[in-house]
Structure formats: structure tokens, C-alpha cells
Amino acid sequence: MAEYLNLIQIVSGVIAAALVFTGLLLSAKKLNPEKYETIPVKTTVISTLLVILGLLSYAVTKTCTNMTVVTEEHYELWALYFASLEEVIKYFGFAVFIPVLFRLFKPKSRKETPAEEEAYEEEEDN
Hints:
By secondary structure, the protein is mainly alpha-helical. It is 74% helix and 0% strand. It is elongated, with a radius of gyration of 23 Å.
């Protein structure tokens, strides 16, 4: 059973890292300070869901770790999973709000300075 726990732990850890990384990267790619546009709602929702799925997968990794620690006491698997999920949310739950923060901090529209306006007017005259 221990060899299966190690395999499950490794696979769920890799899946968790991939999901969280993909979710954050999806939001970060939509940040473009030159266009001065906000991130679309659909992208924010998808990114947030990917991060949540990654944290749920990481809870499986933590469950396998806790299962090897408490082998002598007989807890049900769901009790261990929810305890692990609580621990994951306590330490890494803030990651869910990162795509939302990317959306909230939209770039401000670029205002032309007087020097840029004069240069633009001179180009039009020539």
C-alpha cells in the first residue's frame, strides 16, 4: 500500500503544480500594459478554477503524507482528506485570489504629456 501512496502522491503533486502554474500563467499572459485593457471575465474564471483544482489536487498529496504519519490510528479517508484540505487552504488559499487581483488592478489609460502632444502636432504639420 505504501508504494501506491508514494505514486499517488507524486502524480497528484505534479498535476497540482501544473494546474496552478497554468492558471496563473493564463492570467499573466493577458496582462498587457501597452493595450490598457482589463483581463476578460472568462479568462479570470478559468484561471481561478484551474488554481482551485490545483489546490484540491495538492490536498490529495497532503492526504497521502498524513496517511503515512497516522497509520496506527484508524481515521477514515475523507476525514484525512478534509483535514489536509483545510491545511492546504490555510497555507495556499491566497493563490485563488491572484487571477482576481490581476483583473482588479487594470492598467490606467495612458495620458499624453504636453511634450508628447507638441511632438504629435509637429509631425502633423510636416
